[in-house]
Amino acid sequence: SSSSSSSSSSTPEQQDSSKKTERRKRVLSGAQPTGILHLGNYYGAVRNYVDLQEDQDAFYTIVDLHAITVAHDPKELRESTRTTAALYLAAGIDPSKATIFVQSQVRAHSELSWLLQCATPIGWLERMIQFKEKSRKLRSQPADDDGEESAAKKSVESVSTGLFTYPVLMAADILLYKADLVPVGEDQKQHIELTRDIAERIN
């Protein structure tokens, strides 16, 4: 009986080893590459990033794929992507503690996004408040000339499909890393709920 007891119990060394292999909570957060870090960004998000990297498995991404859902200058986007990464480092995010990466350089983001789009009903996306607000804003911008035909064309063509499927790409970002914590603003909370619904649907 003594041999049975000793084989079933674990030694202190084994217990310590088990604790070490437990996965830390994982945080994922992304920011569009504006290339500008003001006090609002710092106190609202980046300072939180710096704190979280101490006890979380932290992944911070520069979401350039999200940025191209609206009109942009490719050269400026590349420059602001690099600048945003530099600002993260300057604000105190430590590459030895956190992973900083550019979204488009990890092709699994766009690949998983396509797979999720194929499983996501259009009706779910049509309920997204942020899409309605952004598309309304884009359509209300004045046309380059005053012709009614030009204005009508701009209203139809100013909103991209990418803006419509933006929340699915965000869901892919989150599910790809199996994130436990995703700090977002109030305007993104509906997208988090959509991510949950998509995950339940595909599983």
Summarize the structure.
With 203 residues, this protein is mainly α.
Tell me what the structure shows.
- This protein is mainly alpha-helical.
- Helix content is 59%, strand content 8%.
- It contains eleven helices and three strands.
- The protein has a three-stranded parallel beta sheet with strand order 1-2-3, with helices on both faces.
- Helix 3 links the parallel strand 1 and strand 2.
- Helix 6 crosses helix 10 and helix 10 crosses helix 11.
- The chain is globular, with a radius of gyration of 22 Å.
- The termini are far apart.
Q: Could you list some keywords that capture this structure?
A:
8% strand, single chain, 3 strands, globular, 203 residues, 3-stranded parallel β-sheet
What topology, given as strand order, has the largest sheet?
A: 1-2-3
Helix/strand structural class: mainly alpha
Question: Averaged pLDDT, please?
Answer: 82
User: What is the assembly state of the chains in this entry?
Assistant: single chain
Helix content bin: 55-70%
Strand coverage percent: 5-15%
Largest sheet: 3 strands, parallel
Shape label: globular
Number of strands: 3
Q: Could you list the spans in which at least 5 consecutive residues all have pLDDT below 50?
A: 1-8
Q: What's the number of helices?
A: 11
First-residue to last-residue Cα separation: 45 Å
Q: Using the CA coordinates, give the radius of gyration.
A: 22 Å
